[in-house]
Design goal:
The chain contains eleven helices and six strands. The strands form two sheets. A four-stranded mixed β-sheet has the order 2-3-1-6. It has a two-stranded antiparallel sheet with strand order 4-5. The chain has about 260 residues and is an alpha+beta fold. A hairpin with a 5-residue loop joins strand 2 and strand 3. The longest helix has 22 residues. The protein is globular.
Length: about 260
C-alpha cells in the first residue's frame, strides 16, 4: 500500500481482515493470492473480478468507491464481485439450472401487482449471471445471500468484541448495498443506471427483496434489527446522485491509474 493516509491504510487492512474472516471466501481463495487493485474510474463499472486459476483472484475496484463509501458498502461490492461471480460459478449444479432458465421471463419481486407485471430475463440482459442472482429461487441467489449474511455476522462479532472502527451501521450499509444491487438488476434487466429513471419501481423492488431477507433472518433477531429502513423513491434518487459524484476528492487518486494494490497471500 503506497499511500500514507492512515484512514485509508486502516480501511484497507480491515477489508483484507474481513475477507479472511469469511470462511466461504477463504475456502474459495485457499492459498492463492487475492489482489484488490484500486483504479481511477468515473463512468465505468465500479468493480470487476477475474479468477486466474492457480495465479489467484484479481479484483479491480474504483478508487472513488473505496474513498467515499464506508466499509459496509465496500464489502457489499466485494461480496458481489467474489460471491455472485466466480465463487458461485464453481457450484456444479449451476450450469444445468441456469440453462433451464435461459431466456425465460422471470417475475420481478415487488412488481407482480402492477397493471403490467414486470419480468427479467437473461435474454437482452446486461449480464446473465446477474439476472440469475436476482432470481430468488436460484442457487446463485442463495450463494450470494449467504455470503452477505456471513459478512454481516462477522461485522456483528467485530462490533461485540470492540474491534477498532467496527459499528452496527456497517451491517446496515452491507444490507443496503446488497438490496440495492438486486433491485437495480431486476427492475432494469441489468441495465442498472436505468433504475434512476424509475425510482418508484426500484424502491418497490428493493423493499420486496428486503422482506425476503427479513424472513431469512427469522431466527437472528439481532441482525434483523439492523436491516435498513424501507427505501423510498427519494432514497433511490439520492443513491444514484451519490454514484454520480464518483470522483476522488482527497488525493487518493492523485491522477495515478494504480493507487493501491492490496495483496492477500
Amino acid at each position: 500500500m503506497r499511500h500514507t493516509d492512515e484512514r485509508y491504510r486502516d480501511k484497507a487492512v480491515r477489508i483484507i481482515e474481513s475477507l479472511q474472516k469469511n470462511d466461504t471466501i477463504r475456502n474459495y481463495i485457499e492459498n492463492r493470492p487475492c489482489r484488490i487493485t484500486l483504479l481511477v474510474r468515473t463512468t465505468e463499472t465500479p468493480a470487476n473480478v477475474w479468477d486466474r486459476g492457480d495465479e489467484g483472484v484479481d479484483i479491480e475496484l474504483a478508487s472513488y468507491y473505496f474513498e467515499k463509501y464506508d466499509i459496509g458498502h465496500v464489502m457489499g461490492m466485494l461480496a458481489h464481485e467474489i460471491g455472485l461471480h466466480p465463487l458461485a460459478s464453481r457450484n456444479a449444479g449451476i450450469p444445468d439450472e441456469e440453462l433451464m432458465f435461459r431466456d425465460v421471463p422471470l417475475p420481478v419481486p415487488g412488481l407482480a401487482d402492477i397493471n403490467t407485471p414486470r419480468t427479467m430475463s437473461t435474454e437482452g440482459a446486461g449480464q446473465a449471471d446477474h439476472i440469475m442472482a436476482a432470481f430468488p429461487s436460484s442457487t446463485r441467489h442463495r450463494i450470494y445471500r449467504e455470503i452477505v449474511l456471513e459478512m454481516a455476522r462477522t461485522f456483528a462479532r467485530d462490533t461485540q468484541t470492540g474491534e477498532e472502527n467496527a459499528k452496527s451501521k456497517d451491517i446496515t450499509d452491507l444490507f443496503d448495498c446488497y438490496l440495492m444491487d438486486l433491485a437495480s438488476i431486476a427492475v432494469t434487466n441489468d441495465h442498472r443506471m436505468n433504475a434512476a429513471t424509475e425510482p418508484n419501481y426500484t424502491a418497490k423492488v428493493y423493499n420486496a427483496y428486503k422482506e425476503m431477507l427479513h424472513a431469512q433472518l427469522a431466527e437472528d433477531t439481532s441482525l434483523r434489527a439492523l436491516l435498513p429502513s424501507d427505501k423510498s423513491m427519494f432514497g433511490v434518487i439520492n443513491d444514484f446522485r451519490r454514484i454520480g459524484h464518483g470522483s476522488c476528492s482527497s488525493g487518493v487518486c492523485a491522477g495515478q491509474e494504480l493507487v493501491w494494490s492490496l495483496l492477500w497471500a
